[in-house]
UniProtKB/TrEMBL annotation:
Entry annotated with the keyword ATP-binding: no
Keyword Hydrolase attached: yes
Protein name (database record): Proline iminopeptidase
Record-stated family: Belongs to the peptidase S33 family.
GO molecular function list: peptidase activity
Any single GO BP term: proteolysis
Higher taxonomy: Eukaryota, Fungi, Dikarya, Ascomycota, Pezizomycotina
SUPFAM superfamilies according to UniProt: alpha/beta-Hydrolases
Keyword vocabulary terms for this entry: Hydrolase
Gene3D superfamilies: alpha/beta hydrolase
Boundaries of every AB hydrolase-1 domain copy: 76-208
Length: 472
């Protein structure tokens, strides 16, 4: 059974409004919620959000009734991808103007632990929690089950009427949050939009990464077919990295290891991703061959490929987002799945050097995977290494989804699903779509995972066409 903890309204701390370019009226909101909603008097978190409306300035001043009608526009809550990332400012979010043009007021709420919402920092967590177990216990409260409880608490504050509902829009991990919300509090939702986020609700972490590696391998092949000259370049760089002892220091304090370099494949699943990775490989190879070392500028670009120091939740809770209830542990599933594949023999430390130096095959990049070695090569993650190990072994996670509830769902759900997604497996996404009663899905092999940002017009058009048109 899904956790049925009663949720109390969030406490609204402050509410300050500003007008910014693009005629956006932004109200900055701070709320207070408990870390553990089952213990409302315990430790508190502060959530930050932005409420966005068009800054209409009519020639004739609005009447009180017109002002009231303006302020009662339906809410659309945007749920960011991740886990572990805050939401960009509304003027920098391509989705904003589309949401407003559809007649919504848009709520951008940073998840707990991200952005400005009591952000989690690995070093600070290690200082505030005395033991690794205490750190792990604290960090375990930052998954989607508690994110949804926060959202529900905020909804009750902004929409105090018991019958009031709002709409939610989830991109990537935000879609996972949508499905959790549909499981926990469906009566609070008017409609749900999901892009690239039909979570594998019936699959274990190991099943997920076993499937994702297959798609990552396909994207590696596409990369080397497009840039065959990079086969030698990548080999040259990898040989340099494994010969470096100690490893090359990065500007942010971490180390430029083989695993960090080959994590660049995380970009292969995005529009323009192959080209971006190629540009960075070109820079690294050119500097290495011409001057025997890398510039600070290029090393900083390398660090940005997977920013775990700044977004640590993405590291230690990435695999637990696939643990749907007691009896499931993540246990570094991506590492275990990769070790079983011949293309990723280099994941085995004892075979790493011989594989890199002797193999004639291209060296394959990884995708959206977190490996144990990251807790050594990322500077800030070193503070929570033992806590991360505890989280990886944890097997008493609360449930994230109620399959029975989703099977009898009555909330309108509209989703876009990407055939060549390397982050959310398409086969498992289709399995989830078959589970959610009444869902409408647009499936395409003409867009990648970041299409909401890269091809906003097309994605929004497809979603609202499904909502507004009837099928015979």
């Amino acid at each position: 059974m899904v956790d049925s903890t009663p949720i109390s309204p969030a406490t609204l701390i402050t509410r300050i409004s500003h007008v910014v370019p693009d005629a956006l009226h932004i109200t900055e909101l701070y709320f207070q919620v408990p870390l553990d909603h089952a213990n409302p008097q315990g430790r508190q978190l502060r959530l930050f959000g932005r409420l966005v409306r068009k800054d209409d300035r009519p020639i004739i001043p609005l009447t009180p009734d017109e002002i009231e009608a303006r302020d009662k526009k339906p809410y659309l809550v945007y749920l960011e991808g991740g886990p572990g990332f805050g939401i960009p400012e509304p003027q920098n979010l391509s989705f904003t103007r589309y949401a407003l043009s559809k007649g919504y007021q848009l709520l951008l709420l940073d998840y707990r632990g991200t952005g400005v919402s009591s952000p989690v920092d690995a070093r600070i967590v290690s200082l505030n929690q005395d033991t690794p177990q205490g750190q792990a216990d604290y960090l375990s409260f930052f998954r989607a089950d508690n994110i949804v409880k926060d959202l529900e608490a905020v909804r009750q504050t902004l929409l105090p009427s018991p019958s009031s509902t709002w709409s939610i829009f989830g991109q990537s991990f935000g879609g996972f949050v949508c499905l959790t919300y549909l499981s926990f509090y469906p009566s609070s939702l008017r409609e749900v939009f999901i892009t690239g986020g039909l979570a594998p609700i019936k699959r274990t972490a190991l099943e997920v990464y076993t499937a994702l590696f297959k798609k990552v391998i396909e994207r590696n092949e596409a990369y080397y077919n497009k840039y065959p000259e990079d086969i030698v370049r990548v080999k040259t760089i990898t040989k340099h990295l494994i010969d470096n002892d100690p490893p090359r220091k990065l500007p942010g304090g971490g180390t430029f290891t083989l695993e960090r370099f080959l994590s660049f494949g995380i970009g292969f699943g995005q529009h323009g991703g192959l080209d971006s990775v190629h540009t960075l490989i070109l820079r690294l190879f050119t500097e290495l061959t011409n001057q025997k070392d890398f510039t600070v500028a290029t090393l900083q670009a390398a660090e940005k490929q997977i920013p775990l120091d700044a977004n640590p939740i993405y590291a230690f809770l990435h695999e637990p987002i696939y643990c749907n209830g007691p009896g499931q542990s993540a246990d570094f599933a991506a590492f275990r799945a990769g070790q079983a594949l011949p293309q990723y023999t280099w994941l085995n430390k004892e075979q790493q050097k011989s594989f890199i130096t002797s193999s004639d095959e291209p060296i394959y990049f990884t995708g959206e995977m977190i490996f144990p070695s990251y807790y050594e090569s990322f500077y800030n993650l070193r503070y929570v290494t033992k806590a991360a190990e505890i989280l990886a072994k944890k097997n008493d996670w609360p449930e994230l989804y109620d399959i029975e509830q989703l099977q009898k769902n009555e909330v309108p759900v509209y989703a876009v699903s990407y055939v060549d997604d390397i982050y959310v497996d398409f086969v498992f996404a289709r399995e989830t779509a078959r589970t959610v009663k009444g869902i409408k899905v647009y499936e395409t092999n003409q867009m990648y995972h970041n299409a909401l940002r890269a091809k906003t017009d097309e994605v929004i058009q497809k979603l609202f066409k499904m909502r507004d048109e009837e099928l015979d």
